[in-house]
Design a protein that fits this description.
This protein has 16 helices and 42 strands. The N and C termini lie far apart (about 170 Å). The longest helix is centred in the C-terminal third of the chain and has 43 residues. The protein is α+β, with helices and mostly antiparallel strands. Strand 25 and strand 26 form a beta hairpin. The strands form 14 sheets. Strands 4-6-22-21-16-19 form a six-stranded mixed β-sheet, with no helix packed on it. It is found in: Cell membrane; Cell projection, Invadopodium membrane; Cell projection, Lamellipodium; Cell projection, Ruffle membrane.
Length: about 775
């Protein structure tokens, strides 16, 4: 039997075989696990040569005969990342500083086999910075302009702490110079401001100062700038950003860190808004500066956000939006759409602009995010980041590392995989770079699209049918219009290129079920040594000798074998016709099949009621018994009483009832030739009734004694007299006990009184209220003479 491919998606052998590869080149593009055997058994199909390596070895294909080319990685340029100090003596040019390693690689890709390499990134200390300050000069920014006039020298001093190579430039913008964005009356074109305000003529974008390392020059030129004005609230800042991004030479951008500070207190116009001024031509994304002025604002619409994102990314520009509190939500949403951008809150007069720039730069530079250009069709790339303190990221987080300080080194594991060879050419180039940086890694992709043995092919070989193919890698690679193992078939005859597929049943892997040969898309079944044994079927999937056996006989000797299944004779069934349909062995003592509690299958009872068991389903260890089972029905039919009195006709008409005079008249077990059960049951009044239950000739018979056996009732008078006498005696006893207790209590009290009387002592003191009747008077003058 051949290998099945039920789980073809995870079975490498199935993947290889089901691809039906007709050449070595086709085989190695199926999956990395597939190999091509240059030598197999004579007559075996071409597609059988393509299999997983282990299966090929098991099929006795020598390792030296297996074509299994592997991909490789070659590092072409690998300059180490730069290590230098800001205060060091080695002053390097920007192009001499390396922050990413390696710089160029060549990858040889085989389909399904990823190639993984490590990329290192290290933030270089004292890395040069170009900063371009783009400012809104509409009238609402008047007080902001005053604070920006000294920005050049002040910012130079602050940036010295970060880099010794810093350049700064300045540009300004207002709005498109057409209605309804500005007033086009002659007077307003000269001075768009109202009242006594002296404003300059409106303009779209002006490059005031290209990037320079002279802060004084910045201050001087900015001090000469004047506020302008426009009519609507949103400004034309997107036009200015586009020109700053694409006009590299006029702005003076170097291949260093590029920062664009966009300062405004208003919103922005974007693509489509130009229709208000009759401008419908999309922005072309090209430089249109003449004498440092944008000259095509009236001709091209505002750029779209996506267009800006592309140009800022292509030119490695990191944007800092310095906007007032009112427009923070708008620009934060814009920040989410523009990679490597930041938003800072600008005070009402721009007094905090230096701190805002420093904080935004530190935020942007502390994060590195890798990006790649468009990948060739069929090529995929995955990233895994290994950041500070060993923190790892995968998926989208695998592209970036955060909280990177100057001098920190992080690395990325990058895997590139191809699923197929390119349609045109065998070499592609992709580039990977950190967002906002000019450095990049160039990766040259070469694809393995054929085997090495294909170079030794024999065109129009005699080994192929009538020279209709090239014999390469041990098989015939057919010429145009020919197919088959030896190119023996014509496409016009067979009308399919996958001949072997016509010989595989249910999209399996075995050709002709391994019981025949595929000849031009049709199975020719093999012959057996025993002429009585025959393979048959469209895919040779049937035979008449591989059916189930019983007692060492094909189909148990009770049927015939057709397409590996037994067709049983009458009265037999089962996969091997070993199941008899006779029921005599299933009869119970009561004459019923399986006691009416099961089914007879293959001469054996299968009890359907789980309570019954035994060979004929007659044993019931947990059943209450026949007597208890029929008690209620016997009671309702014989005595019109019991729980089933109201449903007697419906539930209890399944037996024949016969009444007898006394117990002696009931049938006796010794007198009967059929099973009989004697029953004695008690009703709700404690009366006993006697009956028998039997099944005779499939008829259920119940003999019942027609009189209930009730116990005699009790004599009421003696019981009542006894109860009354008992109550009287108990009452008298209680009275005597109470009287006795009272006598005892009185005697104890009297004895206590007598004792206290004898122990009493009477006080003989004078009466305090007594007064004598005699009064004695003393003469004070009497001296006793």
């Amino acid at each position: 039997m051949g290998r099945g491919c039920v789980f073809a998606a995870t079975n490498p052998s199935c993947i290889c075989i089901k691809a039906n590869a007709q050449s070595c080149g086709e085989c190695i593009q199926v999956a990395e696990t597939c190999g091509w055997c240059n030598f197999l058994t004579v007559g075996e199909s071409k597609s059988a040569r393509c299999d997983d390596l282990e299966s090929l070895k098991k099929r006795n294909c020598a390792v030296t005969k297996i074509e299994n080319p592997r991909g490789s990685i070659n590092i072409d340029k690998n300059n180490p990342v730069t290590n230098r100090k800001k205060d060091g003596s080695d002053k390097l040019k920007p192009e001499q500083i390396t922050q990413i390693q390696p710089q160029k690689l060549t990858l040889t890709l085989r389909s399904g086999e990823p190639q993984t390499f490590e990329l290192k990134f290290k933030r270089a200390e004292d890395y040069p910075i170009d900063l371009y300050y783009l400012m809104d000069l509409s009238f609402s920014m008047k007080d902001d302009l005053e604070n920006v006039k000294n920005l050049g020298t002040d910012l130079m001093k602050e940036m010295q702490e970060i880099t010794s190579d810093f350049r700064i430039g300045f540009g300004s913008f207002v709005e498109k110079t057409v209605m309804p964005y500005i007033s086009t009356t002659p007077a307003r074109l000269i001075n768009p401001c109202t009242g006594n305000q002296n404003c300059t003529s409106p303009f779209s974008y002006k490059n005031v100062l290209k990037l320079t390392d002279k802060g004084d020059e910045f201050n001087r030129l900015v001090s000469q700038q004047q506020i302008s004005g426009n009519l609507d609230s949103p400004e034309g800042g997107f036009d200015a950003i586009m020109q700053v991004a694409v006009c590299e030479n006029q702005i003076g951008w170097r291949n260093v860190t590029r920062l664009l500070v966009f300062s405004t207190d208003a919103g922005f116009h974007f693509a489509g808004d130009g229709k208000l001024g009759g401008i419908v031509l999309p922005n072309d994304g090209r430089c249109h500066l003449e004498n440092n002025m944008y000259t095509m604002s009236h001709y091209y619409d505002y750029p779209s956000i996506a267009h800006l994102v592309q140009k800022l990314s292509d030119n490695n520009i990191q944007t800092i939006f310095a906007v007032t509190e009112e427009f923070q939500p708008v620009y934060k949403e814009l920040k989410n759409l523009i990679p490597k951008s930041a938003v800072g809150t600008l005070s009402s007069n721009s007094s905090n602009v230096i701190k805002l720039i420093i904080d935004a730069y530190n935020s942007l530079s502390s994060e590195v995010i890798l990006e790649n250009n468009r990948l060739p069709e069929g090529v995929s790339i995955t990233y895994k980041s290994i950041c500070k303190n060993g923190v790892e990221g995968t998926g989208e987080n695998g592209r970036k590392c955060s909280n990177i300080s100057i001098g920190d080194e992080v690395s990325f594991k990058i895997s590139i995989e191809s699923q197929k060879c390119p349609a045109i050419g065998k070499t592609e180039v992709i580039k990977i770079k950190p967002q906002g940086f000019t450095e990049e890694v160039q990766i040259v992709l070469n694809f393995i699209c054929d085997c090495q043995c294909a170079t030794k092919g024999e065109p129009n070989s005699d080994k192929c049918y009538e020279g209709n193919g090239t014999f390469e890698c041990g098989a015939c690679k057919c010429n145009e219009g020919r197919i088959g193992r030896l190119c023996e078939c014509s496409k016009d005859e067979v009308r399919t290129e996958d001949l072997d597929a016509n010989c595989r049943k249910d999209n399996g892997t075995d050709i002709c079920s391994n019981n025949g040969d595929c000849v031009c898309g049709t199975c020719e079944c093999k012959k057996r040594e025993n002429p009585a044994e025959i393979y048959s079927g469209k895919y040779c999937e049937c035979d008449n000798f591989n059916c189930d056996r019983s007692n060492n006989k094909l189909c148990g000797g009770h049927g015939r074998c057709e397409c590996r299944k037994c067709i049983c004779d009458a009265n037999y069934t089962g996969s091997a016709c070993d199941c008899s349909l006779e029921t005599s062995t299933c009869l119970a003592k009561n004459g019923q099949i399986c006691n009416g509690r099961g089914t007879c299958e293959c001469g054996l009872c299968k009890c359907t009621n789980p309570k019954f068991q035994g060979p004929t389903c007659e044993i019931c260890p947990t059943c209450p018994g026949v007597c208890a089972e029929h008690k209620d029905c016997v009671q309702c039919r014989a005595f019109e009483a019991g729980e089933k009195k109201d449903t007697c006709k419906r539930d209890c008409s399944y037996f024949h009832l016969i009444k007898v005079q006394d117990r002696n008249s009931l049938p006796q077990p010794t007198d009967q030739s059929f099973p009989l059960t004697h029953c004695k049951e008690r009703d709700a009044n404690d009366c006993w009734f006697y009956y028998t239950y039997a099944i005779r000739n499939d008829t259920k018979e119940v003999y019942v004694m027609e009189h209930l056996d009730c116990p005699a009732g009790p004599d009421i008078i003696p019981i009542v007299a006894g109860v009354v006498a008992g109550i009287v005696l108990i009452g008298l006893a209680l009275l005597l006990i109470w009287k006795l207790l009272m006598i005892i209590h009185d005697r104890r009290e009297f004895a206590k009184f007598e004792k206290e009387k004898m122990n009493a002592k009477w006080d003989t003191g004078e009466n305090p209220i007594y007064k004598s009747a005699v009064t004695t008077v003393v003469n004070p003058k009497y001296e006793g003479k």
